[in-house]
Write a structure and sequence with these properties.
With about 350 residues, this protein is of the alpha/beta class. The protein is about 60% helix and about 10% strand. The protein contains 15 helices and five strands. The protein binds fe (ii) ion.
Amino acid sequence: MLEGMAVRVLYVDDEPSLCRAFARMFGSDQRVTVSTTTSSVEAATLLENEPFDVIVSDLRMPFMDGIELLSTARDKRPDARRLLVSGFADLDTALNAINRVGVDRLLTKPWNTHELMSAVRSSAEHAVLVRENARMATALHHKAEELASMNHELDRLVEERTGNLLNGLCSALDLRDSETQWHSRRVGRYARRLGEELGVDGRILDDIERGATLHDIGKIGVRDAVLLKPGPLSDEEWTEMRRHPALGHEILKGINFLENARLVPLHHQERFDGTGYPAGLRGEEICLGARIFAVVDTYDAITSDRPYRKARSYDVARAEIEAWAGRQFDPRIVQAWLNIPATDWWRIRRDIEALGGD
Ligand SMILES: [Fe+2]
């Protein structure tokens, strides 16, 4: 029998001397706890209360015969092994029961001690294996859940740290070309607020914020001579400048959690009427995040100080945004923007500046 595994055996026989003989058989075995009873009715009650691994029952008994008892045992202790002991005269009935109530083993009376002990032991071993298997399956299930949650936490950490790193990079880029360090972070938060107004939520809202924050990351590949040139750009310089959306899209490739977000950098210079670049997409061909971005980017540009001019008012921005609805901007998104009170935008701006952008 399996080392260290205690098993509980129930023996039911209306003949008291056989009950005693059975108990004696396992008397010296510490790992086997034997209960016996001469009453099948009492046996049914015991089955309710004790987790038996093996049930051995005589066939012929008053009130409730062995077949009925083992059938009850199957309902109450489905994992236990059931053994039926029958005299030769009742062998046909006993054989029938094997199929009907699912008896695991049939033994004949008078029993041979050695045969009965070995039958009980192998049944016990089987029952213990089933029990142990169930226990390990549960433990395995818990471990799998634990691992899944650890994985989830790791993914979250990678997202958070990579996100912070990229935010820092965008702030550095903001400083390089506009001297307004928090422009990218602000349009990210503004885009989230506008997304909420449009009824977007969950992961998609995160993608929109991230995408908007990273919209200009491709400028990392544009030379200072072009990016910072004070005067008008030559055709060649424009070509270089206009590569930054595709470059941003490319830079973010392979970062799993940015797979959707990176469409925003690619589309952020497209215009609703199809006159933007790089692909001249129109309407809903432009991803939602980029259509949202276009509106909040204009708002932020107008209401922020620039090296060459002071910030202008909310009303100026509002007039500009309304004027370009249907041309540069998706009119549905402009409408949602108009529904948001100006105080919301000020609050976001103030919060970002207060936290140093975090
Ligand atoms: Fe850009």
